[in-house]
Task: inverse folding
């Protein structure tokens, strides 16, 4: 009897156990970075990685609402964070300045542990009235070059709009993993992202970031909210990102239902891109977004996806890279994430120009299903 030949996969297949999902994937470090990491290692867990935001604002037993109400108390240095009065943040929020950018890996491990039965606490019903800040964020040229290669940008000293999102993302992640945040991070769906670039940002500039959440609202499948991330140089805002997230819930929040109607035919493709499985792990490495739905079959299946899916922000970045030579110095790029991009798969990219506006989209090359629609203006 003839033996069936086994097909050799052209791409490496990486599977993570449940333990590895919780502990987080191993990061590749160069010898120089490994030496620095070893020299700076602190066996004690950092305050911002282990405490709720209430612990940063005041004692661990106080919640954020109490911290916001008691504005007369001196909270200058608590748990390594500087806490401003309620008037110090945007629209009266309590401003909490962290001493350093949080570690994204520790935050994802915390979120995954909280998703296990009996491990997660009750979520707050409202948005936390806080604003987190970090100052003095600099760019590692080697990391910028790695990001450019993964996303398809040219290797220059000018920061892509989506790279600034990566720089500040751990701060927003810290806000979203707080016990007071109304929507758990695990299973949250990134449905839209808008970035405004006020002027070009060079790699040698030092940025300050602050982030807050707003506009909690009902949706037919649960609740949505916006997480705002702002980047500034010397006190002037140079970049602003607004990410819209959907938290699915069993009982809908009463929002209007969408009229799906007939799906229109996809526009003519300008290019076809093969999206390999490595896109998930490569982008996780350069972005710090190690959500297992992007990096592991097991992780994807745990959250209802048959295969890993590409990061939405990688899809947006790759589209911007295709338009890089046509982008003005100041612009807003707005995208809505539709169907997920399975890994691996082939996608069709289309782009059309009208006056000073570019409309672009990604569609599944086989089915024509919409995966991303966006506009640059």
Result:
């Amino acid at each position: 009897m003839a033996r069936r030949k086994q097909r050799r996969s052209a791409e490496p297949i990486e599977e993570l156990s449940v333990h590895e999902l919780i502990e987080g994937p191993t990061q590749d470090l160069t010898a120089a970075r490994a030496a620095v990491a070893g020299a700076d290692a602190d066996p004690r867990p950092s305050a911002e990685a282990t405490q709720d935001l209430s612990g940063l604002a005041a004692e661990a037993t106080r919640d954020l609402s109490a911290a916001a109400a008691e504005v007369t108390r001196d909270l200058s240095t608590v748990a390594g964070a500087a806490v401003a009065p309620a008037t110090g943040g945007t629209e009266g929020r309590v401003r909490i300045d962290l001493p350093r950018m949080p570690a994204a890996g520790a935050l994802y491990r915390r979120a995954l542990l909280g998703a296990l039965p009996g491990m997660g606490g009750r979520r707050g019903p409202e948005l936390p009235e806080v604003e987190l800040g970090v100052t003095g964020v600099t760019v590692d040229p080697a990391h910028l070059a790695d990001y450019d290669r993964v996303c398809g940008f040219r290797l220059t000293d000018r920061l892509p709009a989506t790279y600034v999102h990566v720089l500040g993302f751990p701060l927003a992640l810290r806000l979203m993993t707080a016990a007071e945040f109304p929507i758990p991070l695990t299973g949250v769906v990134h449905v839209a992202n808008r970035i405004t670039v006020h002027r070009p940002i060079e790699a040698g500039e030092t940025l300050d970031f602050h982030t807050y959440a707003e506009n909690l609202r009902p949706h037919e499948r649960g609740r949505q909210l916006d997480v705002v991330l702002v980047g500034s140089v010397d006190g002037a805002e140079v970049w602003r990102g607004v990410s819209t997230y959907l938290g699915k819930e069993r009982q809908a929040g009463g929002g209007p239902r969408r009229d799906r109607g007939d799906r229109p035919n996809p526009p003519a493709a300008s290019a076809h891109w093969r999206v390999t499985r490595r896109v998930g792990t490569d982008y996780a490495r350069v972005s710090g977004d190690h959500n297992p739905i992007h990096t592991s079959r097991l992780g994807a299946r745990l959250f209802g996806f048959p295969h890993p899916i590409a990061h939405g922000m990688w899809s947006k970045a790759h589209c911007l890279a295709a338009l890089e030579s046509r982008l003005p110095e100041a612009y807003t790029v707005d995208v809505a994430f539709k169907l997920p991009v399975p890994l691996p798969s082939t996608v069709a990219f289309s782009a059309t120009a009208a006056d000073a506006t570019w409309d672009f989209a990604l569609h599944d090359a086989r089915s024509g299903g919409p995966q991303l629609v966006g506009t640059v203006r």
